[in-house]
Amino acid sequence: MEYGIHSRTPLFFCLLFLFLLYTTIAFNHTTLRFHEAYSPLFSDFNIQRSPDDKTVRLLLNRFSGSGIISSDYYNYGFFSASIKLPAENTAGVVVAFYTSNVDTYERNHDELDIEFMGNVKGKPWRFQTNMYGNGSTSHGREERYRLWFDPSKDSHRYSILWTPKNTIFYVDEIPIREIVRNAAMAGDYPSKPMSLYATIWDASTWATNGGKEKVDYKYEPFVSEFTNLVLEGCIVDPTEQISSTNCTDRIASLLVKEYSTITSEGRKSMKWFREKYMYYSSCYDSIRYPVPPPECVVVPSEREMFQNSGRLREKMKFGGNHRRHRRGQRSRRPRKVEVTGQVAAL
Fold it and tell me: Name one Pfam family in it (predicted).
């Protein structure tokens, strides 16, 4: 199985380890037990909690997927978990870790996504990040990537920082994407309180090769494991027009955390990741967006990588063909969960 690395020499991995060691910071987190912060979202029978309540396993089988939701809404925050994905043939399987307020703001909801897409046996998992603000679901801001490791062999930490100023997506303390809020974004920047979700579900209609590869339940159950649960932010009542909770101090505290600003070394890590493992970006998709979305910062070295469709110009990265981007059809998850935008047929 390839994960975007053609050279697997000991020297390569030694250099990679040293690179990651010196360009990342180990964040300090307060982890939570499941009962302290989460509730079942759907299919309790497919949710397994460890005896110490620090780990939760979400199962997908022929009967249902499963999901959990934070017990509270947060007005900005840092959301993180160590996640281990299913192995074997995972075509059609989607595991999502994301924030949303669709239950309260059905027509103008906000959302920030990390969404993992399974693959046929022997092919690697892929994942995407996305952002919606104020119901802008027809204007998804997808970016899609591969990983330098096999996410089904060990747990890795995935995090979403969301502040009034910026949003940063992290993989193992490496910043992989930053969205800096600006005036031109207006309501497209998520700004209403959101809950945190984690789900696994059957996305056979679109997730693998445009829906050609379906979930094969011969391999059930598909198990995704979540541990080291982190929820940091100001808890609010999303239905109150004027919040009874003053979040000023909590937001100020969030903004001075080590993960709220990308250091110069962090920028090098992000550049390394994006130039090696990103294979689609809406910022370079001039077919969908003749004018790039207002949050986009065009980086010349990235611009050179992509066609007008936002997909890679060459087959050089991952040793396989990359289909041209096509807009997929939206599907609905079980109640209270919504598919995060229009997804390319991969």
Answer: Glyco_hydro_16
